[in-house]
Design goal:
The chain is α/β, with parallel strands linked by helices and 487 residues long. It has 15 helices and 24 strands. It has an 11-stranded mixed β-sheet with strand order 9-8-7-10-6-11-12-13-14-15-16, with helices on both faces.
C-alpha cells in the first residue's frame, strides 16, 4: 500500500520524500518494526521515540512520522504532524482496513469495576453469541488466541491488530477496558464504540506520569462518551452528570436509586453451594440474579453488565445464567482452605477499593479480619498514606509488605504505608518479603477468621527495578495450605 492511504485521516506536512512511498504497516516500537513499516515517533513519560529514529531507519523503515525536526537519510520519507499519538491510531486503523468498524465494541471506563464488569459482559455475550473478544487488565482474547495482558489498554497499533484478529475469527462483539491514561494518550482514537460504560469515579491515578489533578482525570473519562453511540452510566455516582455532560451519545442509566433506567432492588447477601455472593432483583423484571462474588459494589458491576446486555438484545435467562457462574481471577477470588478460614485474593490497590473489600468481608468474619497488602512504586505517595489509614481503621490485623516497588526502594514505600497506619490505632506487622508475609498472615489466622491478600490479584509477577520476577500470590497461598516449606 502507499503511505498516502495510511494518512487519509491525518493532517500532515511532507518534510522530505513522497507520500507515494510503498509501506507494509505501522508501529511505534522499533522492537516490533519489520522492514517496510512506517515508524511513528511517540514521546512518552520516560522515553522519547524520536531517539530511536536511527534504529528504525537501520531496520528498514521507509518513512518516519514525527512531531519534531529530525535528521534522516534522503531516501527516507519524513512526515510531520502535530499529534503523533492521534496519527498512530488513524494510520493503524487505515493499515488494517478499519477492523473495529466490523465489530460491536463496548468500552468500559471507571475507577473501579472495569475488569469485573468486562468479564461479566464478556461471559454473557459469549453465552449469547458463542464467542466474544476481550481486551483488559487480566487477559486479551481475540478468538484466535488468548494471552495475559501487559497493560489495561494497549497502544493503538496493538488494539487495531487485536480487532483484526477478532474480525478474522468471525466475532461479532468485543468488550474492552478503557483506562483514563489510554484516553489521555489517544490509544483509543478512531475506535467507533458501539457502547461506552461508566462504572464510577474516585480520586485515584493522580500524580507523576498519570494525571495532574482530579479534574483532568474526570475529563479523560468523559472523552470515551464523545466517541460512542450509546453511553451507559452509573446514576448513583456523584460524577455521572459531569462525565456525560455535552456528549451526543444516547444516554442510559443504571443504579439502585429512583430514576435509573435499570434499577437493582431487594439486594442481599446470599451463599449458594458454599460460595458467598450477592442476590438482587431488577425493577420491572421477574426473578432474581445471583453473582458468586460478595460485596454491594459487585451488584453495580453485575447491573452494568446486565443492562448493557439487555441493550444489546440478549435474553434475560442468558444473562441470569452467565452471571450465576462468573469467576474473575484475582477479583474477590476465594481460595478454599477447608479449615474454617475464608481466604480471599483481590486486586484492591487503592484506598477506595481496599475499603470496599474490607467492608464486604467484615460481614463474613466470625473471627478476625486480617489484611495483607503493599503499594506500588512510581505512584502517588498519598495512595500509600490512605491505604495504611484505611487498613488501620477497618481490619483487626494488618500485614504490610512489598507489592511492585518498581524503581523505588521497598523500604521507603513501607514507611509511607506505616505513616498512614499510625494515624489509627490499628495493629500491624511489617514484613518486606511478600512470600514470607503471606505465610505469616496465614499462619497467624485461625478458624472463623477472614484473610484478605490484596494488591496484586491476577498478577503473577513482582516488578523490581524494571525487571519482572515470577510471583503468584495464589500459588504461594496454596503452597502454605499444602504445608510446603519456603523455597
Amino acid at each position: 500500500m502507499e503511505l498516502s492511504q495510511l494518512l487519509s485521516q491525518v493532517r500532515y506536512e511532507v518534510i522530505q520524500g513522497t507520500v507515494h512511498t510503498r509501506v507494509a504497516g505501522v508501529t511505534n516500537d522499533t522492537r516490533d518494526l519489520k522492514r517496510g513499516d512506517v515508524y511513528v515517533c511517540i514521546e512518552g513519560y520516560d522515553t522519547d521515540g524520536h531517539r530511536f529514529v536511527p534504529e528504525a531507519v537501520k531496520k528498514g523503515a521507509p518513512a518516519i512520522v514525527t512531531a519534531k525536526e529530525i535528521p534522516c537519510p534522503e531516501w527516507v520519507t519524513v512526515i510531520r504532524v502535530s499529534d503523533t499519538r492521534w496519527a498512530l491510531a488513524a494510520m493503524s486503523a487505515a493499515a488494517l482496513g478499519y477492523p473495529a468498524e466490523h465489530l460491536r465494541v463496548i468500552g468500559i471506563t471507571g475507577t473501579k469495576g472495569k475488569t469485573t464488569t468486562a468479564w461479566m459482559l464478556r461471559d454473557i455475550l459469549r453465552r449469547a453469541e458463542g464467542a466474544c473478544g476481550l481486551i483488559g487488565t487480566v487477559e486479551t482474547d481475540t478468538g484466535l488466541r488468548r494471552f495475559p495482558s501487559v497493560r489495561t489498554t494497549p497502544e493503538s497499533c496493538q488494539l487495531m491488530a487485536y480487532f483484526q484478529e477478532m474480525r478474522e475469527a468471525g466475532l461479532k462483539s468485543a468488550v474492552m477496558e478503557v483506562s483514563s491514561q489510554a484516553l489521555k494518550l489517544e490509544r483509543t482514537a478512531c475506535i467507533p464504540f458501539h457502547m461506552g460504560i461508566f462504572t464510577n469515579l474516585g480520586e485515584d491515578h493522580i500524580g507523576p506520569g498519570e494525571h495532574a489533578d482530579l479534574q483532568e482525570y474526570r475529563w479523560c473519562k468523559h472523552l470515551l462518551f464523545l466517541q460512542c453511540e450509546t453511553g451507559l452510566g452509573n446514576r448513583d455516582d456523584p460524577c455521572w452528570g459531569e462525565i456525560f455532560d455535552r456528549t451526543g451519545c444516547r444516554k442510559i442509566t443504571f443504579g439502585t436509586g429512583e430514576g435509573a433506567d435499570y434499577r437493582a432492588v431487594e439486594i442481599r447477601r446470599e451463599t449458594r453451594g458454599g460460595c458467598p455472593g450477592m442476590c438482587f432483583a431488577m425493577e420491572g423484571r421477574e426473578g432474581t440474579f445471583f453473582i458468586p462474588l460478595p460485596g454491594r459494589y459487585n451488584v453495580y458491576n453485575a447491573l452494568a453488565a446486565a443492562a448493557a446486555a439487555f441493550e444489546l438484545g440478549v435474553g434475560e435467562e442468558t444473562v441470569r445464567e452467565a452471571l450465576g457462574r462468573v469467576s474473575i481471577p484475582g477479583r474477590m477470588e476465594r481460595i478454599p482452605s477447608g479449615d474454617g478460614r475464608c481466604i480471599f485474593l483481590d486486586y484492591a490497590h487503592n484506598a477506595l477499593s481496599l475499603a470496599n473489600a474490607l467492608g464486604t468481608l467484615r460481614g463474613l468474619a466470625k473471627g478476625r479480619l486480617i489484611v495483607l497488602f503493599g503499594c506500588g512504586g512510581n505512584r502517588s505517595r498519598q495512595r500509600r498514606f490512605e491505604m495504611g489509614e484505611t487498613a488501620g481503621r477497618m481490619a483487626d490485623e494488618t500485614v504490610i509488605t512489598s507489592d511492585n516497588p518498581r524503581e523505588e526502594k521497598p523500604e521507603d514505600i513501607l514507611a509511607d504505608i506505616v505513616e498512614g497506619m499510625r494515624r489509627t490505632e490499628g495493629t500491624y506487622t511489617v514484613i518486606q518479603d511478600r512470600r514470607e508475609a503471606i505465610r505469616y498472615a496465614l499462619e497467624c489466622s485461625g478458624s472463623g477468621d477472614v484473610v484478605l491478600i490484596a494488591g496484586k490479584g491476577h498478577e503473577t509477577y513482582q516488578e523490581i527495578q524494571g525487571v519482572r520476577y515470577p510471583m503468584d500470590d495464589r500459588e504461594i497461598i496454596l503452597g502454605v495450605l499444602r504445608g510446603e516449606k519456603d523455597r
